[in-house]
Write a structure and sequence with these properties.
The structure is a homodimer. Chain A has about 130 residues and is mainly α. In chain A, about 65% of the residues lie in helices and about 5% in strands. Chain A has a domain of about 60 residues: Orthogonal Bundle (Multidrug-efflux Transporter Regulator, Chain: A, Domain 2), CATH 1.10.1660. Chain A is elongated. Chain A binds a DNA duplex (30 and 30 nucleotides) through helix 2.
DNA sequence: ATGCACCCTGTAGCAGCTACAGGGTCAAGA
DNA sequence: TCTTGACCCTGTAGCTGCTACAGGGTGCAT
């Protein structure tokens, strides 16, 4: 039997976050003690660990939900899970590419700044409106 | 004179977004027509262009605000602007590194999946709780 | 009995928009 | 002139994924 605080420490999750997961239906409502405290068991620990690892890998909560329901069905073909993971990987790669493009632009902008006053600053100029001289 | 819709098309910004920027004080309140429509001028176009370019480069709104007030002071030394841009670049680089680590983990997880049922799936296993066999 | 750490519910806040609901305005066409 | 339709107005609520209260109750040690 774990209290919410113990479960939180075991999974590196804030107490409020656990209650939030319960509220949105990601964690089942646990049984309660006489004093109305939430009482968690091993299954809850497993489920929350799963959620936290998936989150740490960047899966959004709705994908975590999908992964959870897929993985509950132990006899099913795991192709769908593989697909979800691949889709997520593709998204991560897209984000990396976007950020790399951003980095190039930022670096070029910073390089162009030769100091001086704001009026002469290339950074400000680069951010300003397209001028039709 | 531009209506809010025209300004939006000129800067690729949604009308609601422009009103939002006004609400949070990023854009000044424009004058109004007889019919109470917002009436924008060249200065507004310039300012909104600046905001949108900075946003496209990933600057959060509070940094955009700082950049705007710095760049209003044309005679000032542009070192602070340069610093803000460099800080932002550093953040982008940190994000790229984080995502690259994520990508490695995801790719390794996906590689390990040899198909079969969910019960055998390495992805599910990798996400599951640490087992003390 | 008293203090303290923990637990409870419910609500509001963060970024940065986006999407209504429920109206008013304006120009063009019949 | 009337009507249609595209636009505009305000105000408020929703999105993600938490996080932070306020205002209470519980449980254990001293």
């Amino acid at each position: 039997m774990l209290t919410i605080g113990e479960l939180g420490r075991a999974t590196e999750t804030g107490v409020e976050t656990i209650r939030y997961y319960e509220r949105i239906g990601l964690l089942p409502r646990p049984s309660r003690t006489g004093g109305n405290y939430r009482a968690y068991g091993e299954a809850d620990l497993g489920r929350l660990s799963f959620i936290r690892r998936a989150r740490a890998l960047g899966f959004p909560l709705d994908r975590v939900r999908a992964l959870l329901s897929l993985s509950d069905d132990r006899g099913r073909d795991c192709a769908t899970i593989d697909l979800l993971a691949r889709e997520h990987l593709a998204e991560v790669e897209r984000k990396i590419a976007d950020l790399a493009a951003l980095r190039r632009e930022l670096a070029a902008m910073i390089d162009s700044c030769g100091g001086g006053t704001v009026a002469q600053c290339r950074i400000v100029e680069a951010l300003g409106p397209a001028r039709r001289d």
